[in-house]
Design goal:
It comes from Paenibacillus thailandensis. This is Low molecular weight protein tyrosine phosphatase family protein. By secondary structure, the protein is an alpha/beta fold. It has helices at about 15-20, 45-50, 60-65, 70, 90-100; strands at about 1-5, 30-35, 50-55, 75-80.
Length: about 110
């Protein structure tokens, strides 16, 4: 299963998610950001590639819907409700990601 994690700048939240889930053999994982200054900016190819898309906040979902409505057709976009209050690989962030994502996929 191909998982895509999205936040604003792809520095802390989505990048942390990519690191913790990419070591699981049942997943291919990528991450990106919605901001033009993101480390990796999400594009239509990312959306087409993904089987399941996780965004950190509702605003990320809205941005994807505005920019990639055609590519999102038939895709599941899940809002994890994780605010931009954590650093890369923060222990609390890792625990929150594991808990919330496990509601949607078997780890």
């Amino acid at each position: 299963m191909r998982l895509l994690f999205i936040c604003s700048r792809n520095i802390n939240r989505s990048r942390t998610a990519e690191v913790i889930f990419r070591n699981k053999p049942q997943f291919e994982v990528r991450s990106a950001g919605t901001d033009e200054t993101a480390r990796i900016t999400v594009n239509a190819g990312h959306i087409r590639w993904a089987d399941l898309i996780f965004v950190m906040e509702h605003m990320h979902r809205r941005m994807l819907e505005q920019r990639f409505s055609r590519e999102l057709f038939g895709k599941s976009v899940i809002v994890l409700n994780i605010p931009d209050a954590y650093y890369f690989m923060d222990d609390e962030l890792v625990n929150i990601l594991l808990e919330r994502v496990s509601d949607y996929i078997e780890l």
